[in-house]
Amino acid sequence: MTETETLIIGAGPAGAACAGELKKQQRDFILLDKQSFPRNKVCAGWVTPAVFKALSLDPKDYPYGLREFHEFIIHLKKRDYSLKVKQYAIRRIEFDRFLLEYFGLEPVLHEVKKIEYSGESFIVDGTFRARYLVGAGGSYCPVAKYFIREDTGTDRHRTVVAVEDEFSYPIEEDHCHLWFQQEGLPGYAWYVPKAGNIVNAGIGGYAETMKKTGENINDKWKWLTAKLERQGMVKGHVWHEMGYTYRVRAKHPVLQKGNVIFIGDAAGLATRDMGEGIGPAIESGMAAAQAIATGKRLSAHSVRKNSFSHLKVLQQLLWQRIL
Ligand SMILES: Cc1cc2nc3c(=O)[nH]c(=O)nc-3n(C[C@H](O)[C@H](O)[C@H](O)COP(=O)(O)OP(=O)(O)OC[C@H]3O[C@@H](n4cnc5c(N)ncnc54)[C@H](O)[C@@H]3O)c2cc1C
Prior knowledge:
Elements (H helix, E strand, L loop, with lengths): L1 E8 L3 H12 L4 E5 L12 E2 L1 H6 L12 E10 L2 E11 L2 H12 L4 E2 L5 E3 L4 E3 L3 E8 L6 H6 L11 E10 L7 E5 L6 E8 L3 E9 H7 L3 H14 L11 E6 L8 E2 L2 E3 L15 H17 L15 H13 L1
Parallel strand pairs: 1-2, 1-9, 2-6, 4-11, 9-16
Antiparallel strand pairs: 3-5, 4-5, 7-8, 8-9, 10-13, 10-14, 11-12, 12-13, 15-16
This protein binds flavin-adenine dinucleotide.
């Protein structure tokens, strides 16, 4: 049996940030993932400046493909707006590997199947024993399934179902486009051009709302791809869409139960306004490590609830309406 103080399950942004911070604090830990890196993750790869700030990293020093946006084109109902921003796009296959390199981490390849609690420590698959257990396994995290998912009946109201495709394409339209309140979608659609002639196009919405209104995410996906074709933004591409679900932040997210800590998608922490999950995953991972190092409880206040200042966005949109 391998013993450690903290066992982290999942080496995505949440697990990597937690392990990186524990390493900085010179604490003992083991980081596990069922996949070897680089591995892909269904995700548009939009990152906010807050992500680089949390990592204490100048975006200029990011060694892989990075696109900076100074403007988002917002399509709201039938009107188009320009939102001045400073935002970024990365590819997850590169970014998640970069995080491990940046923190100097080498995850152990292991798929977690069985978790036991002896009253003092956690035993995972009869192989690892730890005092703290960190659930960083994403939407279907085995730790969250075992310790919290059963007692949260409200999860489905916060579940976002999303479909996307990421592919090489000779980009002509290099603005990021977002479509809101279109075709009855309770969410939004996106077109994100990335560095190195990569495009990510996708669509996401609240699963429960769609179920109630009889809407279907696949129909919305067809609407988006037809629109991109019609507008000449993506022509002649054979689409290979992939779907995934994740949850936006609850009013009172469960982040800790005794010595079990939940971070990132395992805790359902994506921002309420935009469903941004990478930043909250990193922020919660770092805060979890600090909680372990100091013996204090992990507080939800250490993780952002929203991606944007709503007041600033509203001011910009209203101003254009007036003009
Ligand atoms: C279509 C789509 C688009 C999105 N777009 C954006 C975006 O543009 N910007 C943004 O900020 N967020 C976006 N998100 C959300 C974002 O992808 C997630 O919030 C983010 O990946 C959460 O990171 P995480 O580390 O918690 O989980 P993950 O990145 O899912 O990592 C979890 C890790 O746990 C491992 N794991 C799982 N089970 C086990 C097990 N049993 N044993 C061992 N290892 C295990 C997995 O292999 C994986 O590596 C999007 C999500 C979707 C679905």
